[in-house]
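The material for today's practical consists of a large collection of protein records. Getting from the letters to the C-alpha cells is the skill we practise here. To make this concrete, we reproduce a full record directly below:
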Amino acid sequence: MLLTKVVRALSEPIISFGTFLGISVVLTTDLDTRLSVHEAVCAERYKSIENSFERVEKRFDDGSAKMKRLEYLLYAVMVAVLLGPGAAAIFFKKLLGL
C-alpha cells in the first residue's frame, strides 16, 4: 500500500509556474506531498535498518555464549595436556564420583 502511494506520488509531474530569476516556481502542495511521501519511505527504511541491527546484536550475543563454552573447554584441555593424561584421569574420576 505504501509502495503504491510512493509510485503514484513520484510519478505525478511537478506543476511548474515558470521561472523567476532562474528559479523554478512550483506548487507548494505538490512539494509537500512529495516530501511527506519521502519522509514515510525513509521512516520505513530506518525501521528496517534498526531491525537488522537488533538481529545482528542477538547473533553476537548467542555467539559470545558459545565462545565462552569453547574457551572453558580449551582451558580444561590445556590443563589435561600440561598435567598429563594420568592426572587428568584422576581428576575426572573424582569429578564424576567414581
Q: What stands out?
A: The two ends are 68 Å apart (CA to CA).
